[in-house]
């Protein structure tokens, strides 16, 4: 559940009890990830994660004149964990809650969604398994004020890393597919 809560997004599959079809509505806002994290450079993240045999991929194509705004990691620059959130914006929004595109990266074995109880769609892009939900609710109040209650949610597994994307609603599913299609290792850029 940690992977979803950081971006403030819950898929319907996370709102259901394992033994029930009853949906539950979350009545909380997740704590700010930034409060327990720090911003680091792409080079710092790449160097640290390469030592751990983790190959980080980033998009080479972005919609709507978006630009990279930063990476938040668990821990401190000299003692970072294996969880990072990348943020992109076209209007200089540099928090996880307000960026137009945010994606969380962490080591994981496979897509964390169950096909038997998820309302989204399973597919593949570039041979990578992908899950997407075009209307995933977001619980960050700042996000809801800017964009409304829903977001595009896409989850992709690339090697040993899982990438959980949140895109604000004016982005199209095709935009987000193109972002994922453009993912390349940092080491090749």
What does this structure look like?
Strand 6 and strand 7 form a beta hairpin. The strands form 2 sheets. An 8-stranded antiparallel beta sheet has the order 1-3-4-5-9-8-7-6. It contains 4 helices and 10 strands. It is of the alpha+beta class and 189 residues long. The protein has helices at residues 2-6, 42-51, 141-147, 173-181; strands at 37-40, 57-58, 67-76, 79-89, 101-107, 121-125, 128-137, 150-158, 161-167, 184-185.
Explain briefly what this protein structure is.
The chain is of the alpha+beta class and 189 residues long. Helices cover 16% and strands 35% of the residues.
Rg, Å, rounded = 16 Å
Strand order of the largest sheet: 1-3-4-5-9-8-7-6
Mean pLDDT: 83
Q: Strand tally, please? A: 10
Poorly predicted regions are 1-5, 10-30
Q: What is the N-to-C order of secondary-structure elements (H for helix, E for strand)?
A: HEHEEEEEEHEEHE
Task: Please tally the helical runs, counting DSSP H or I stretches of 4 or more residues.
Answer: 4
Q: Describe the sheet with the most strands.
A: 8 strands, antiparallel
Q: Roughly how many Å apart are the termini?
A: 32 Å
Q: What name does the CATH topology carry?
A: Protein Transport Mog1p, Chain A
Beta-strand percentage range: 35-45%
Structurally, the number of domains stands at 1
Do you know the CATH architecture? 3-Layer(aba) Sandwich
């Amino acid at each position: 559940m940690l992977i979803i809560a950081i971006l403030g997004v819950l898929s319907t599959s996370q709102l259901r009890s394992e033994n029930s079809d009853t949906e539950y509505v979350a009545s909380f806002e997740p704590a700010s990830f930034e409060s327990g994290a720090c911003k680091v450079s792409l080079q710092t993240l790449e160097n640290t994660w390469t030592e751990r045999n983790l190959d980080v991929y980033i998009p080479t194509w972005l919609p709507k004149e978006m630009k990279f705004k930063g990476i938040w990691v668990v821990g401190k620059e000299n003692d970072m964990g294996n969880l990072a959130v990348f943020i992109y914006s076209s209007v200089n929004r540099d928090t996880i809650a307000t960026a137009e595109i945010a994606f969380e990266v962490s080591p994981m074995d496979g897509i964390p969604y169950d096909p038997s109880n998820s309302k989204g769609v399973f597919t593949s892009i570039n041979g990578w398994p992908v899950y997407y939900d075009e209307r995933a609710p977001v619980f960050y109040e700042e996000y809801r004020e800017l964009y409304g209650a829903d977001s595009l949610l896409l989850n992709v597994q690339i090697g040993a890393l899982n990438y959980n994307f949140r895109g604000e609603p004016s982005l199209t599913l095709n935009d987000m597919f193109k972002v994922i299609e453009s993912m390349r290792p940092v080491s090749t850029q």
